[in-house]
């Protein structure tokens, strides 16, 4: 069975072949985009196993998305195909010198109709980490119930819960989902979030205060605060560490946070310290920005090992044990 299980929506992503406003763009490449499947792919590239739970339209785009994820080594046997609702679609807009913009066409998608009955006991059998994001519970009421049920079932099965709030204001539609995301954070063993997201959840961007707020809850074990080109802060109950950014030449930041998450979780699965896991995460996140597309720049296991050995010595790339329990 897979070490990491994740649940969410992956869309067909229309990526322009040239920069500019979309009303002038004629040519696109078809790719995939989804925070949860990004993480699963990142973990598989780093030599670990991951399974993706989702619903796709029983349509050509759904088959494309599923095949693309499966081709990267992710177990997609738990993906359902829904004949009633379509696969979600997103368009990227890339303007030179500006952040990439995204436009969603995912309302009433197959994934937004996911329900709790997708969670049979076998979903979590043999797993070690369930990774959730704050995207899935805001897609619909049924997705919120699915996310909360998944966290409960995974805990009962002995898995650790990893959570990234991954705040997407466009999906909130004027509602305040802060309480839902805070509740999921409080139930998590591993919290992965951006500095701006921390302000939404905890009302502060001071790293030590964020750590104090997180670790006061019973399950809390590991924290990673992502701050883009400024690096990251990682902590466990024994203390925190500043992680410098890994050198890179960025062209597209989308997908970097998910790569960071994959590197961090894989480090924990290998029994590395929280600092070492943070270093792996920083490398993965930086390399992800050097290619267009969400996943195309994610490092393979051998690449990660070479970088770690060059920077920290020959022992840095070795697997040292099981996930922290």
CATH fold topology: UDP-N-acetylmuramoyl-L-alanine:D-glutamate ligase
What gap, in angstroms, lies between the N and C termini?
18 Å
Name the shape in a single word.
globular
* CATH architecture descriptor text: 3-Layer(aba) Sandwich
Number of helices: 10
- Whole-number tally of structural domains: 1
Structural class, from helix and strand content?
Answer: alpha/beta
Largest β sheet strand count, sense and barrel closure: 8 strands, mixed
CATH class: Alpha Beta
- The helical percent reads 25-40%
- Low-pLDDT parts are 319-325
C-alpha Rg, in Å?
18 Å
Overall residue-averaged pLDDT value: 92
Tell me what portion of residues adopts beta-strand conformation. 15-25%
Strand order of the largest sheet: 4-1-9-10-11-12-13-14
Full CATH superfamily name: Ribokinase
The H/E string reads: EEEHEEHEEEEHEHHEHHEEEHHH
